[in-house]
Amino acid sequence: MIYREAGQFRTTYVADQRIFPITQDRVAMAMLLIVAFVVVPAAASNYVLTALLLPMLVLAIAALGLNILTGYAGQFSLGTAAFMSVGAFAAYNFQLRVPGIPLLVTFVLAGLVAAGVGLVFGLPSLRIKGFYLAVATLAAQFFVDWLFTKVAWFSNDSPSGTITAQPMVIAGLPIDSPARRYLLVLSIAAVLALAAKNLSRTATGRAWMAVRDMDVAAEVIGIPILRTKLVAFGISSFYCGVSGALWAFAYLGTVEPQAFDLQRSFQILFMVIIGGLGTVMGAFLGSAFMLLFPLFLNWVLHLIVRTELRPGLLSQLELVFFGALIIVFLVVEPRGLARLWQITKEKLRLWPFPH
Amino acid sequence: MRTRTRGWSEAAALLVALGLSAPAVAQNEQFIPMPSYRQGPYAAGGTSIYGGFIDYLNLLNMRDGGLNGVKLTYEECETEYKPDRGVECYERLKGKGPTGASVFNFLSTGITYAVIGKATQDKIPLLTMAYGRTDASDGRVFPYVFPMLTNYWSLNTDIVRFIGQREGGMDKLKGKKIVHLYLGVAYGKEPNPIFLKQAEKYGFEAKLVEVPAPGTEQQAQWLEIRQYKPDWVILTGFGVMTPAALKGAARVGYPMDHIVGNFWSGSEEDTEPVGDAAKGYISAALNPPGKDIKVIQEIERVVYGAGKGNMVNKARIGSVFYNRGVLTGIMTVEGIRVAQGKFGKKPLTGEQVRWGLEHIKIDDARLAQLGAAGFIQPMTVTCADHEAGGAVKFQQWDGTKWKLITDWIQADKALVRPMVEESATKYAKENNITPRDCSKEG
Description:
The structure holds 2 protein chains of 2 kinds.
Chain A: H1 13-16, H2 23-43, H3 46-72, H4 80-97, H5 103-122, H6 130-150, E1 163-164, E2 169-170, E3 173-174, H7 178-200, H8 203-213, H9 215-220, H10 225-252, E4 254-255, H11 262-275, H12 280-305, H13 313-332, H14 337-350
Antiparallel strand pairs in A: 1-4, 2-3
Helix pairs in contact in A: 2-7, 3-7, 3-10, 3-11, 3-12, 4-5, 4-6, 4-10, 5-10, 7-10, 8-10, 11-12, 12-13
Chain B: H1 2-20, E1 29-34, H2 43-64, E2 71-76, H3 83-93, H4 109-122, E3 126-127, E4 145-146, H5 152-167, E5 177-183, H6 186-189, H7 192-202, E6 205-211, H8 219-228, E7 232-236, H9 241-252, E8 259-261, H10 268-271, E9 282-285, H11 294-304, H12 320-343, H13 350-358, E10 361-362, H14 364-369, E11 379-380, E12 393-397, E13 402-404, H15 413-430
């Protein structure tokens, strides 16, 4: 009843090409942004800001990146964490070695370096496909880990290979409080999400989808496969690089290769799959699910069973529940949380008179 | 069903409490956070250490009614030894209890690195007993970090001195070949700089061999070691890595009594899975194993007698890691006790506990009072020296249990301290910290 587009006519091309063609969607989005930018930093506790929302947003950026590659362009990758790692180390070294470099420029450069590395590891995608490509991108994972461990220059000869990220300052304003760190990450995530959404609606995005759906057909109609695939790898790695730099600078406060191990790549891949392949919203939903749900389970289980249970059993139960829920979700809706949301919206349009 | 309704009503109560943000009722409780890890590749150590830690707190609560009338409370949070989970646990636990968290003990070098800046900002001390950031031993730059008893660099000088003893003098090390086999995380890499420095000093040939985490795959590394034919192997392993290393050594026929583990690689959990092949393996010992220590017997009598023990596997009581946990408890509580002497017998803030930790002084008489005679060396923490100690014993696995084979071996402080100060100064510079002037500290 509320969510209905009756009476909303699009009379110009601009109106027709909007991201959110329905007024209700635009209002909802604006309200979401107001809540995220104004209400949350003012009302949420430091715990919610730093331990829940911050990592969720940072990993959502990485999930966006992987979604571009896997969801839109159809190229499997298990090297996400490696590109994040490149971004983190690049940001650290730019801050260390270029005096007076602005923080945001550092993040952009970190993303570009990661994009460069992504291009190199994307080259095999021209010859190999599907799971074989996933295995090939594993090489990125191991190579990057090895490189940062072996070559002490990258970690400025730190004895443990774990380095403290420099304090963040933007135009003289120190980004040290939880609310400021959250706002920084949120702004970057919002800009990147908007860029991703728009990219998917351009010729580039449509070329990606054409390659994903059938690369031979795409080639026949004149889409340059080489360029399309490499652009996807580059842009995807750019997102991952920015995410890695933020993970190190805004969340952990340290830069170390172990924070970006193979498990992180899998985690992000699961985010994309559970959230919904080929959707921007899926990246955020998937990240929230993968990151916040275990903590929620932990919290609920603690409330219900208290500590009378065997110590340690609780942490194991969490894993069992989480694993079971992932299976349930994928059985119920293989196309992810974003698809569930879409179905809800479609139902809402007909409510209360479904036919 | 009853438990479920209780859960929901509590959830509702909590939401109300959050919504109204009612001021916490001032209870007479001192909150100690427990960021434990009971799953993952390092769970064997985590379960025993945090088990011993919790048992010691319960011993004080049950036997003495807390610490000078203040009840010691705790809450666990699973970190899985991962920095990101650790940061979440830190944020979750830091504000609990009437005065907030007293002191954090992560038992993970990686997590410690990640929270040092945050903890210093929040004024909550970190007790990183025999692990963590080595240069944090310089209390002038790291006022809130306490790598007590020994750090990785002191430890490595202990080990090389022990090897020298075995060879019949430090001068005999010249021309020998020593391999450092380590877990490829922050913890394992930390000793490398001092190891290379010692190689220079004593003229032995040093080789670094890294095992990628978690360390179950070591075939290539042991083949490399077999080809290199070192005289000694120093092992810095943790969790599943150590038994895998011992099995690898056995497979290539490397003699066990020429492998020296550090004190995180020398527990029953490390040797028992290897079976007979582990016989003869030597490791450093921060604390002696066994139930000869009075406080361990007290825990068994009071806590386990009442059925309130934390360990599911009671055979682990008195194991190396269990005793390490009890020792962690002793040092934590001792810091709070000293702070109570200055600030009063009431719940204290992290900042006050920090003062207490910095003024810990444990001599033999104090150890005897604690029921821990022979547990550690006497030690005095100062403003400049947050390590206070550095000595370890060495123990050998005889096939069924660990047996001490040396007395305390002192660290080469003359070598370690300048390196600590140099590294701490570099950190201070990178992070715009002005080191404290210790002559002005009360």
